[in-house]
Design brief:
This protein has a single domain, classed as 3-Layer(aba) Sandwich (Rossmann fold). 45% of the residues lie in helices and 18% in strands. Strands 2-1-3-4-5 form a 5-stranded parallel β-sheet, sandwiched between helices. With 137 residues, the chain is of the alpha/beta class.
C-alpha cells in the first residue's frame, strides 16, 4: 500500500540506522508518510519544516537524554503533537523504566513510552490510538 498525500506524516528519530530503515518501511507500507532523522538537531530542523502529525523518538541518542529534550522541544514548537518515546534502556541496563505517576509522566513529556525491541503491531496500535485521540487538536 502506498501512502496518500493526506496520510498522516510521522517524524521518526533514532541513531540506529537499522531501526530507522525497518520502521520507516513498515510505517510507509501501513500508509503513513515518514520522514527520518538520526539526531536531535536534525530532527528539530526537520520538524519545523514538515510539521509532522506524530513523532516517534529514541530516548538515548548522542546524549543519554536527547529523547527527553527533543520531546519537550517538539511539544513547545508544535503544541499538541503526539510523541512516542522508544527506549532500550531496560534491555541495555537491566533497570526498569516506566513512569507511573502523573508527575513522572509530565516530566517524560511523551504520550506513550515503548520498550525496544518493539513489535510493529504494538507501535501501530499506539500510533493509531494517538492520532485518533486528536491530541494535536
Amino acid at each position: 500500500m502506498t501512502s496518500q498525500p493526506t496520510a498522516p506524516h510521522i517524524l521518526l528519530v533514532d541513531d540506529d540506522e537499522d531501526f530507522l530503515y525497518q520502521h520507516k518501511v513498515q510505517l510507509e507500507h501501513a500508509g503513513y508518510r515518514v520522514s527520518t532523522a538520526s539526531n536531535r538537531a536534525d530532527a528539530e530542523a526537520l520538524a519545523a519544516e514538515i510539521r509532522p502529525d506524530l513523532a516517534i523518538l529514541d530516548l538515548m541518542m548522542e546524549q543519554h537524554d536527547d529523547g527527553f529534550v527533543l520531546s519537550h522541544h517538539l511539544k513547545r514548537m508544535l503544541p499538541g503533537l503526539p510523541v512516542i518515546l522508544v527506549t532500550a534502556v531496560t534491555a541495555e541496563t537491566g533497570l526498569g523504566f516506566s513512569p507511573t505517576s502523573d508527575a513522572e509522566r509530565a516530566w517524560v513529556g511523551a504520550d506513550a513510552l515503548l520498550a525496544k525491541p518493539i513489535r510493529f503491531e504494538q507501535l501501530t496500535r499506539e500510533v493509531e490510538r494517538l492520532l485518533k485521540a486528536g491530541a494535536r487538536g
